[in-house]
Amino acid sequence: MARVMVTGGSGFLGSLLVERLLNDGHEVVSIDLLPNPVAHPRLEAVVGDIRDRRALDALFARARPEVVFHCAALLAHGRIDERQVWSSNVEGTAVLADAMAAAGVSRIVYTSSNCLWGHGFDHPVTEDEPPAPVELYGRSKWEGETILLDHPAGLTASVIRCPTIIDEGRLGLLAILFEFIAEGRRVWTVGGGRNRYQFIYAADLIEAMLKAWRASARGVFGIGSDNVTTLRETFEEVIAGAGADARIGVLPKAPTLAAMRLAHVLRISPLGPYHYRMIASDFVFDTSRIKATLDWRPTLTNGEMLLKAYRYYHANRREIAGRKDVSAHRQSARMGVIRVLKWVS
């Protein structure tokens, strides 16, 4: 048993991590801007801000954690102010790192992102590929990596670069896809959906995070599923597994990307620069380093984890529609102009 801290413990990934840690017998302190719905004798759930140094110092003095799992982050879409995204993701990470150093806590596991790039690759992306983010969230995650890996206190930082995290309960933009499938509409692909885009099953990511902690593995690791099929094949697998009447539709690449850019500029779409750059691009992490260093292996493919997430959505659709005051990934994203596409599907 150990004492551990989770930032963003009320979010999608954070809440699943907290549950796993409690099931493993650990004592957990969670800090999040939102309340944690879980009540457990070994969980201290704090509603707070990681930018509040005084509150963090008091929390570290009381909890004395062995490790910090840093999952807290604001997304750069919807109605969130961009200054808040940078402040939370970057300044919050810096304050957290300084508070850790002052408290003598050296180990941190940080969830970074494949949003560090805004273009596709014709080969698996290694940890040595220079980041080139095109939007705020990606820049903030890269800056967070730098803060932790280069901190003067010499923190033992395990940085895990994640593609889209999928599991039961993952909604956000995926809820738009799931709504189209549930209603038997066309599921649109850009350019035919021939691109391969990797996901990661939340339980597999959590297993890697725990292994990184136990191994005190300092450095950067790319993570993701194996046997990545094309998006079209993945969607067809979900539709077939769901027994839905949906079918695949094809949007021409060039005009669709132009329309997505314009919709973003006009602020009528939930999709941003990363999405319109990557929606028809290939992106797969090379996972050989994390497999060799941590003896880690993924358990679900893209299609298997996406079908699992869809079944949760389908079973809980009415309750999901009424959700408020939950993290972005636990509620449905606003469709905006995509609703027009739904009408013609």
Describe what you observe in this structure.
There is one protein chain. With 345 residues, the chain is an alpha/beta fold. The protein folds into two domains: 3-166 and 198-222, Rossmann fold, CATH 3.40.50.720; 174-196 and 229-281 and 302-343, no CATH class. The chain is 42% helix and 16% strand. The protein is built from 13 helices and eleven strands. The chain has helices spanning 12-23, 53-63, 82-103, 136-149, 174-182, 202-215, 231-242, 253-265, 273-278, 288-294, 302-315, 317-321, 338-343; strands at 3-7, 27-32, 43-47, 67-70, 107-113, 156-162, 164-166, 186-190, 199-201, 219-222, 247-251. The strands form three sheets. The protein has a seven-stranded parallel sheet with strand order 3-2-1-4-5-6-10, with helices on both faces. The protein has a two-stranded parallel sheet with strand order 7-9. Strand 4 (67-70), helix 3 (82-103) and strand 5 form a beta-alpha-beta unit. The longest helix has 22 residues, at 82-103. The radius of gyration is 20 Å and the shape is globular. It starts with a strand and ends with a helix.
